[in-house]
Write a structure and sequence with these properties.
This protein is an all-beta fold. It has one domain (2-100). It has strands spanning 2-14, 20-35, 40-41, 52-57, 61-66, 77-79, 85-88, 95-100. A hairpin with a 5-residue loop joins strand 1 and strand 2 (20-35).
């Protein structure tokens, strides 16, 4: 069984020039999903103030953002094992689904 770690953030810090500093700011929530070769999704919506998430999976996986019916499949976005990836939350995306890469 694999685990997807999800951290929700409200903002990202900017430097004195207004450029993104790639430093997460204001942690809104933290959760985990366990999954196998069957797609699972978060059982609750992201916090309404979340603008981006940082994800980490302990197995090669596919993810997909969407609403309460979202399902990941082998054509979704790849999330490699052991890599932290940041994703902005698009309007209308309230949950995430994940499935192991087969």
């Amino acid at each position: 069984m694999s685990t997807l770690h999800i951290e929700e953030y409200q903002t990202i810090l900017r430097d004195n020039n207004g450029d993104i500093a790639d430093v997460p700011h204001i942690l809104v929530g933290r959760t985990q999903l366990t999954y196998t070769s069957t797609s699972v999704r978060t059982s609750f919506d992201f916090d309404p103030t979340t603008t981006f998430v940082i994800l980490y999976a302990d197995a090669d996986s596919y993810i997909l953002f969407g609403d309460s019916t979202v399902e990941a499949d082998q054509n979704s976005v790849i999330l490699p094992n052991g890599i932290f990836r940041s994703f902005g939350i698009q309007e209308g995306a309230t949950r995430i689904a994940v499935i192991e890469k087969t």
